[in-house]
Known about the structure:
Layout: H1 19-24, H2 29-33, E1 39-46, E2 52-59, E3 66-70, H3 81-89, E4 93-98, H4 103-106, H5 124-137, E5 144-149, H6 156-161, E6 166-172, H7 184-203, H8 211-236, H9 247-260, E7 277-282, H10 288-300, E8 306-313, H11 319-322, H12 324-335, E9 342-347
Parallel strand pairs: 3-4, 3-5, 5-6, 6-7, 7-8, 8-9
Antiparallel strand pairs: 1-2, 2-4
Helix pairs in contact: 3-12, 7-8, 8-9
Amino acid sequence: MLSILFTALLYFHAAGYSLAAEEACPADFAALVKQPIYTVTEHLVSLPDGRKVFYRYTKGNDPEKTIVALNGLIYPDAAWNTYIQQMRAKGYSIVQIFYSGHPESLLQQPKGISGAFLDSPLTPGKLSEEVSAVLLDAKIEKPVHLLTLSYGAVGVEFAKQNPEKVRDLTMMAPLVVSLDKYNPDAQAFNNAMQGSKAMASLFDPFNLFGAKSSIEAMGNNLYRDAVDKMISAGIEKGRKPPAGLDPDLYKRGILSLVMGAKDFDLKTYARDALPKINLMLASKEDPPALLQDQLAFWEMLPTAQKGAMVMLNGGEHAMAGANPHASALVTDNLWSGKLASGSYTVDADAKP
């Protein structure tokens, strides 16, 4: 049950990023030295409840060309390296934000920390706070290109709350609803819980005896236990946390992020006053039902809110890492205005 939640667990591994190593042995030094001048710095933002948010800032010279990238659930940050190299060559600044439950941020916590903030779900509202804190810390005042991958789609909440800070929202293979919704066993479980809550509402409509609350709490606990077991199974199969990160903290970080998105539904944002939205989809999306939900979300958007919808032919869900050249080509064309509103198909092996 819930196994589909962790298709992304295939990407579990300790992965680091070393600018020095990258520049010591560049694939094409001549091309690299022609890139615009940039600096790469790493930062840590602390929030009052104990959350710490790590971010990496690849800063160029044009404040009008800033990308804020929100990663998927557990994709290693190194998977973005080729994409980032392509975009900085085009003069973009890139802010990579790692939510407080991501291993990159948990590694910055003091040794032995209890991580009490992980005891409650990291909801889209909390994660929106984290993006706001990073932009304030980085002193970014111009509207940004907000780029999300997979689970990073929960960043739509930031765009909703701060439309003046977002130039446009580009979503790569976005999460539409919690992925357990595509698992038959999990769906049967959710339906049974909804039925139980309906019966409780019928016999205790005002929750005077706590029936509805008790059933809801029981359902959440069962769901949490199932997710916890899936994460533990993934770790036991060799998908270990990054070196130096306590395995329990690692697991709790993922669990808190998953629980925070348990009731997330991207379609509920379709009628909100959002910035212009671009959608990048993968023809090899897995499960296929996720692709259908992504297309349904697109159809729900008001025409005035639609940017471009681009299908990567042969593309994969983790397109920033799996199809970095095509991803760079598409996003640059979107943001430079070369791709106007409409629907397009681009080969996943296309290069800038």
